[in-house]
Amino acid sequence: MNELDVQQRAADVLLDRGVRVKLPAPFWYRIVGVRHKSYILRRPKLGTLIAMSRIASGIDVDFDKLDEGNIQEAYRVVAEHGDRVAEFIAVALLNNRHAIERHAVSLARRIAWGISPDRLAEVFSLVVVLSGVQDFLSTIRFVSQTNVMRATILSQKESGS
């Protein structure tokens, strides 16, 4: 078993069990004395991957560098696209269609305003590495660049049909 297989198995085990991420609690929680709320980052569902890919397509990021553990890339992305990164993390943590529809905006706002940029970069890197969104996003980009319908439309115009 090579090093890549070991890393993949470790990521699978972590995603099955989940990774706990502590965030600042919402206002109503803080009124009763709760300072932090824990979320568990689990293996994303297909709908969550699609939502994460929509957000990530608007971010100029090299997922291969993040997958290798290049934290400088995460810092650069957070500096340039902080709000989008917070939304990306919120969608990954919620991992449920109804929760994403109802709570993603408020959770993203809490992440953006309640976490330091260093911690935001670390959590972003963790989400990218553990979720496998880079593979999914590269497939979507490939399919969008090789649009099958474009060739059909062009061939009809050339032949005059």
Structure description:
By secondary structure, the chain is mainly alpha-helical. It is 73% helix and 7% strand. Strands 1-2 form a two-stranded antiparallel sheet. Helix 3 packs antiparallel against helix 6, helix 3 packs across helix 9 and helix 6 crosses helix 8 (117-131). The protein is globular, with a radius of gyration of 19 Å. The termini are far apart. The model has no long low-confidence stretch (mean pLDDT 79).
Instruction: Give the N-terminus to C-terminus distance in angstroms.
Output: 56 Å
Helix content percent band? over 70%
Domain count: the total is 1
The description of the largest β-sheet is: 2 strands, antiparallel
- Low-pLDDT stretches: none
Oligomeric state, counting identical vs distinct chains: single chain
Helix-strand sequence? HEHEHHHHHHHH
* Structure summary, number of beta strands: 2
Which percent range describes the beta-strand content? 5-15%
Major sheet: arrangement of strands: 1-2
Helix/sheet category = mainly alpha
Radius of gyration: 19 Å
Count of helices?
10
- Mean pLDDT, to the nearest integer, reads 79
How would the global form be characterised? globular
